[in-house]
C-alpha cells in the first residue's frame, strides 16, 4: 500500500457558523468528508452515497502499489 500525505486547509461554512480542518492523511480526509455528508444528507442518504462509490471497486481492491518514488 502507498503512503499518502495531504496538505490541505478546508473551511466549511453554513448559516450557523463555520469549521476549519487540516487533514494530513486520507483517513482524516475521509472522516471529515463522511461527517459533512451525514450533516448535509442525513445518515441513511450518506450511507447510500458511500455505497455507490464502493460499487466502483473490486471487493479486495488493495490500493496503488508502493513505488518508492515521490
Automatic annotation (TrEMBL):
It comes from the Bacteria. This is Uncharacterized protein.
Amino acid at each position: 500500500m502507498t503512503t499518502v500525505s495531504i496538505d490541505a486547509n478546508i473551511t466549511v461554512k453554513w448559516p450557523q457558523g463555520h469549521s476549519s480542518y487540516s487533514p494530513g492523511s486520507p483517513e482524516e480526509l475521509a472522516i471529515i468528508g463522511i461527517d459533512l455528508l451525514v450533516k448535509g444528507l442525513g445518515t441513511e442518504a450518506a450511507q447510500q452515497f458511500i455505497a455507490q462509490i464502493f460499487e466502483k471497486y473490486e471487493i479486495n481492491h488493495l490500493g496503488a502499489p508502493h513505488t518508492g518514488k515521490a
